[in-house]
Amino acid sequence: MAHPVSPLAPKTYPELPEVPGARFATAEAGIKYKNRTDVLLVALDPGTSVAGVFTRSKCPSAAVDWCRQNLGGGAARGLVVNSGNANAFTGSKGRESVQKTAEIAARALGCGTGEIFLASTGVIGEPLDASKFEGVLDNLAGRLVSSPWMDPAKAIMTTDTFPKVATATVEIDGVEVVISGIAKGSGMIAPDMATMLSFVFTDAAIAAPVLQSLLAEQVRPSFNSITVDSDTSTSDTLMAFATGKAAERGVAPIESVEDPRAAVFGEALGDVLYELAMLVVRDGEGATKFVTVNVEGATSDESAFRIAKSIADSPLVKTAIAGGDANWGRVVMAVGKAGEPADRDRLSIRFGDLVVAEQGERSPGYDEAATSAYMRQEDLEIGVALGLGEGRATVYTCDLTHGYIAINGDYRS
Amino acid sequence: MAHPVSPLAPKTYPELPEVPGARFATAEAGIKYKNRTDVLLVALDPGTSVAGVFTRSKCPSAAVDWCRQNLGGGAARGLVVNSGNANAFTGSKGRESVQKTAEIAARALGCGTGEIFLASTGVIGEPLDASKFEGVLDNLAGRLVSSPWMDPAKAIMTTDTFPKVATATVEIDGVEVVISGIAKGSGMIAPDMATMLSFVFTDAAIAAPVLQSLLAEQVRPSFNSITVDSDTSTSDTLMAFATGKAAERGVAPIESVEDPRAAVFGEALGDVLYELAMLVVRDGEGATKFVTVNVEGATSDESAFRIAKSIADSPLVKTAIAGGDANWGRVVMAVGKAGEPADRDRLSIRFGDLVVAEQGERSPGYDEAATSAYMRQEDLEIGVALGLGEGRATVYTCDLTHGYIAINGDYRS
């Protein structure tokens, strides 16, 4: 919280509606931070199905291991999230801590440990003392509420400078069902499966395998298409919980991905994930510019994605944007280093609508003044056309500034 | 030159001996910089063999294309290098500029254009007007000298804060032959074949194919094992020129890689390349720390290299080092994101001789004070042992500081 709020923070936040079947409470457990909430308990009614996607890191946190193991059961009754300590690379102590936390939560909620999901975010390598949760979770279970969702969003923040929430409603069987989500993330953002932490809740009735399939599909254009600093976390966790309470209002459960209602729900879920992912980029550590990188004309969508990621991850591109410098030569460099098919002499590059380079050289119509004026805007687009095929991809990122260095030069201490 | 000299700059420079058969001159052509030399002409005696390795960028500069094409001839008579303009992504204008520059140089030196090699470094995308070389190269050809080598090293600098030279002598057939090299490079350094620009000269008599083989072998542990910012240039060029003049002193030409003298020469060549590569890291944009990343116990050398590169390229690892923060959790993160085989619970990490983590958690003997004291040093080592196999690799890098942002936020303008 020591750092100023991102200039890219939204001016207003939506008020998230209650999600029938999901209640929560937050507390100050003093895990690392002082004078702010750092523990979140979400209680889910019986019948809640669950899905999740996690970091592809080879060194995942103890909580990620735990969630992966429990996901097979397909049912959730509780979610415990703490900030300030990632419980990652904490060895057998980490596994014991996770087990004990789940036991405390299961007792508090009256369910089995196999229905408890956990996430931790903060410093890596510091043992997390589960006894800190001992009195706290019982207390939280005694004061569960259905709103406001801003409270859970705040409790899971680390270097975030603003809370991240998004919501959508979707009509199924003529009944409105709710999808609401929260997220945290600011640095160590190059999700290879999900982002730091994000949790989405719905009262729709959806079988766990269907929910899993929809989540895996929608994570690609949202959380898997953002990067702040190319660093992938040990703790990336995105989970969706469907309480099924809408069934009481006449919505039949969605039991198959072939059910046409699955696609309708999936699209709304995608909208929520996309909004949350964009908020993570807008809170990228030190960010002053939001950048959309659009690549088209690649030999495949995968190739386009790797080229877009190469541009979005390039320190030289990101520092040029921070400096308001229309340095499209660095975009050429980043296309070239991606290792994907590219033909220098067919390549064209634009900033917004301004074509700066085409057919392998500076555009004849290049206008330095107009381009510089464009670069002073807060939301920028870099467009690259390769002229080779139909592959396209979009990646979202932010600039690289002194703020990033200041935040990360002394985060742990 | 506006930026202060790197604190990692060497305190003294070796005086490079003359290389019989190689003479040079430099000039101020005013390509971009004012009041400094920016053009180098090296004249090589008839009989000089040549070898080169270049960027793997898919968008190489016009000069790189030119050198690749001429390399087949195996013979060199002239090298022209300019700083201030990379002549990259300049389309047909770039090709014409290269052709014209070669013609001017060939005329000045009395040789064919196929024996002229070219390199350009500086801004990408700006057309390079070859007519600037018109009078200049003739003038340079008229005042060629054999020393001091510091002059060519200075003429090829861009954002470098100090010139880079290295030398070695090696005894072949009882006669001392000389190997001397120069390099430039500071940012956009993640060579995937060579570094920005480096040229090595020797009076040894070595057939071009042998020289090429030795150069390709020695580039891996030197220029291909360094990274400043993970950005690979369009213009990376490393060339070696062997004038063969040592034959006049009784050294028989090396015609085959099986010749035992090839290995002796190769080792000395490797020493020069290694020294030059380390100087590039020490002049990394904004660098205040020199970092050696040693990875061992990987499933293969290639796997170890990719993990070491992942650590050395991580913005979060590099900012922690800048802040003197022994944040080994970020090293875990970087190992995990590399996508290579790793077992969290066998992993151990050390800073210098201080073991900070072992068997998947913080070391029982971890000493925060001692580790923090170590992190204040200028030359640091990060050691990672994976405990899986015999694969090992070393990558050299520097920290990521406010200086990098300051240098790159407005380089072009």
What distinguishing features does this structure have?
413 residues, 2 domains, 25% strand, 5-stranded mixed β-sheet, L-amino peptidase D-ALA esterase/amidase, 16 strands, globular, Ubiquitin-like (UB roll), homodimer, 7-stranded mixed β-sheet, transferase (chains A, B), alpha+beta, autocatalytic cleavage (chains A, B), Arginine biosynthesis bifunctional protein ArgJ (chains A, B)
Explained architecture:
The structure is a homodimer of 413-residue chains. Chain A has helices spanning 62-71, 91-109, 133-141, 150-155, 208-218, 260-282, 301-313, 315-322, 328-337, 368-375, 402-408, and strands at residues 22-27, 39-44, 49-54, 78-85, 116-123, 164-172, 175-184, 197-202, 226-227, 237-242, 290-298, 348-351, 354-358, 361-362, 379-385, 391-398. Chain A is of the alpha+beta class and 413 residues long. Chain A has two domains: 22-282, L-amino peptidase D-ALA esterase/amidase (4-Layer Sandwich), CATH 3.60.70.12; 290-408, Ubiquitin-like (UB roll), CATH 3.10.20. Chain A has a seven-stranded mixed β-sheet, sandwiched between helices. In chain A, strands 3-10-8-7-6 form a five-stranded mixed β-sheet, with helices on both faces. In chain A, β12 (348-351) and β13 (354-358) form a beta hairpin. In chain A, α2 (91-109) runs parallel beside α3 (133-141), α5 crosses α6 and α7 (301-313) packs across α9. The radius of gyration of chain A is 22 Å and the shape is globular. At the A-B interface, α2, α8, α9, β14 and α11 of A face α2, α8, α9, β14 and α11 of B. Chains A, B: Keywords: Acyltransferase, Amino-acid biosynthesis, Arginine biosynthesis, Autocatalytic cleavage, Cytoplasm, Multifunctional enzyme, Transferase. Chains A, B: Substrate binds at residues 158, 184, 195, 285, 408, 413.
